[in-house]
Amino acid sequence: MDAPYNEVVRPLPDKVLGELEELRHQADRVTASLDPELEKAVGFTHFDTTSSQDNLITVLTTRNDLHQLASQTLVRVKSKEDNRSYLGLVVRGPFAEPDAVSANSTIAVGVVVQGKKLTYTFDYHGRAEIEILGEELDGKLVPPGHRPRPKSPVFLLDDAESEHVLGMSGDLCLGMVVGYEYMEARFHPMDKSVLPRHTGIIGTTGGGKSTTVATLIHRAQEAGIATIVFDVEGEYTHVDKPTEDPAMLEALKRRKQKPQGVRELHIHHLVGRDSRNPRHKNLHPFALNFSSLSPYAIAEILDLSDAQRERFHKAYDVTKLLLEDFGIFPKNPEERQQVLELDELSTGFPRMTIQHLLDVVSTYIYSLSDEGKAETKSRSKPTSRRQASLLEPAEGTDADSPEPPQDNLPLLYSEFRSNFGRVMGRVMAHASRNEISWKTLAGKLHYLRRLKLFDVGSAPGVDYGSMLTPGRVSVIDLSDTDSPQLNNLVIADILRGLQETQEARYQRANERGESVTPVLIIVEEAHEFLSASRISQMPVLFEQVARIAKRGRKRWLGLVFVTQLPQHLPNEVLGLLNNFIIHKITDSTVISRMQKTAGTIDESLWNKVSSLAPGQALVSFSNFTRPLMVAVDPAPVKRLLVE
Predict the structure, then answer these.
(1) What strands lie across the sheet with 519-523, from one edge to the other?
(2) Distance of alpha carbon 100 from alpha carbon 234, whole angstroms
């Protein structure tokens, strides 16, 4: 065979051939004495340096094994020297480093830069940082008290063991764990340590929050969870239809999933407001009951001054007395007991309407007018007798029939109109001053009545019992309201009603030895509802939400707050959350604040938050061994775009 041009081929001397053969035999003997398990090792632990950190270990690997140490890969480190075993997870890397020289050396840089001219490159190895999750001891994972020794072999965990270690088990799938080809981020929907522990879905616009919410709605419905969504934009009013979005359809195809709407959708909207799905078969207009609102919450919502607040509570107390005077409430011993047990920080006085209160305020204004003062002076009887006469109907009249109208008397519109004297008597017995403050209060109450939220004719209230049906999705469509204040009023009242109804159901289920239906409540645009400024203005409202959050944990009632502006949520709200689904956040100050809130998430993961792709999220659930990057599943349901 001819030698190639410019190349000389010479036979090796027999002596050299013999030496090479002996070296081969020696290598075979050494290889035969090696631990066969090392063949499965994907790397070895490196020596520590002055910059080494607790629980972080550097692993070196060959060029061929570099691809096996992908981000979030679980590994087992066997420290042969001291016979210890550790579990770890790749948190940085893998990085490629040249074998012969430093990566920053002139020759290494030159070889790479001149890639068009030079075919030669240095051979290289891989380097990765792994976080030690714990030491394996008697089949348990315990906090590590030592570090793996240098040159300890590192082995990959198979998918089944990885899922077990990370806590990826259950019927509800959120998406795929990044770094694994087949591992899904799963949890048990009936695990009390997950959904009832409350969740925050956070990220900038376009990061995938709405898709995550839509996916969660679909998965929760499949799991038999009663799901309630406060939808301020009407995005989820068509989730009973399969998605038609081309990008979502392609993503579903890649996941071998099909577009599919939820089976049981009900849409609730305020009377006089429209829904974004006005022809839906399960449409439920509703009004709120004024009697269900705490008087302290009403005072906050109306933003009353101190003087107006004092008059509001005086009128509220007088209205309660008149409700009993007119036989409206309480009517019997059971209802009287109910009054004694009433907590006005969480609810209002039964059967009181806003018109009852307005009639009392109108009477106060009249009592301070010239006509009212003249009428009071014209009664020359002693005070006690005068008040008594005002509390009784005029002789020869029926207490239940309206008094003849008089031009100088205020018009009353509730049941109180049947006996103005009784109303006036109660007002005079609890006299007040400052007509201007009373008129301002009346104006604010009239504004509240004109919203037509409360006690609207024959409009039904919210049927909380039906909302808590297993597998039902109830969307509270607030898209046709133009006031965050109005939305907050509705959200606060319905939250209270849901919590009370779930509380009663939980009590009954406990008595019967049964399980209660889990409930998931999703609040969109949570920064509008629970911003720091609103909480400072409405502390009672926040106390109601905090009470619901705390009591709900034991009663299978989980809250999900969705926001693109977590910086507006105060620490009190973030402190209610135990689980986080964090999409892309670009503001470093927001990331820094979230780091302090979600303290279980390590810095290596936070460093990736600003560059997450749409649909990717940093997921920290209480059942996961550690937070993980997850590619959230595409939503199979139809979602309307926000204009």
Answers:
(1) 184-187, 172-177, 628-632, 616-620, 579-582, 199-202, 557-563, 519-523, 226-231, 473-477, 265-270, 283-286
(2) 62
C-alpha separations of 333 from 131, 336, 339 in Å: 65, 5, 10
- Tens-place pLDDT, residues 247-268: 999 999 999 999 999 999 999 9
| Token pair of 274 as six digits | 């429209």
Beta bridge partners of 218: none
Number of separate helices (H) and strands (E) present in the chain: 21, 19
The span from the CA of 199 to the CA of 581, in Å, is 8
Mean pLDDT of 45-68: 90
SS3 603: helix
Tokens of 270: 């305020």
Mean per-residue pLDDT, 305-316: 94
Q: Determine how many CB atoms are found less than 10 A away from the CB of residue 493.
A: 24
d(CA 490, CA 507): 26
Q: How far apart are the first and last CA of the chain?
A: 77
Please state, in angstroms and as integers, the Cα–Cα distance from residue 11 to each residue in 1, 3, 22, 23, 24, following that order.
13, 12, 18, 19, 19
Mean pLDDT (the chain, rounded): 85
Q: What is the DSSP code (8-state) at residue 468?
A: T
Q: How many CB atoms lie within 10 A of CB 560?
A: 26
CA distance 157 to 74: 6
**pLDDT of amino acid 546:** 79
Average pLDDT over every residue of 35-41: 81
Name the strand (E) or helix (H) holding 362: helix 354-368
pLDDT at site 390: 41
Which string of DSSP letters, residue by residue, matches 170-193?
Answer: SSEEEEEETT-SS-EEEE-TT-TT
Residue 258 in contact with residue 240, Cβ under 8 Å? no
Cβ atoms of 175 and 185 closer than 8 Å: yes
CA distance 629 to 617: 6
In the three-class reduction of DSSP (H, G, I as helix; E, B as strand; rest coil), residue 147 is classed as: coil
**Peptide bond before residue 94 is cis, with ω within 30 degrees of 0:** yes
Q: What is the pLDDT of residue 260?
A: 94
Residue whose entry in the numeric block shows the structure tokens 């949890």: 187
**Residue 9 has what pLDDT?**
57
Q: Do 617 and 212 contact (CB within 8 A), yes or no?
A: yes
Residue position matching structure tokens 């990008």 = 247
- Mind giving me the DSSP string for 49-113? -TT--TTEEEEEE-TTTGGGS-TT-EEEEEETTTTEEEEEEEEEEEEEEESSS-TTSHHHHHHHH
User: With contact defined as beta carbons under 8 Å apart, do 517 and 220 qualify?
Assistant: no
Q: Minimal CA–CA distance to 330: which of 598, 444, 338?
A: 338
Residue 622: which pLDDT band, with cuts at 50, 70 and 90? Answer: confident
- Beta-bridge partner residues of 311: none
Main-chain phi, psi angles of 213, to 5 degrees: -60, -45
Structure tokens at 18: 């013999």
Concatenate the DSSP letters of all residues of 197-228 into one string.
G-EEEE--TTSSHHHHHHHHHHHHHHTT-EEE
Confidence (pLDDT) at 12: 64
Opening angle at CA 635, ends 629 and 636, nearest 5: 140
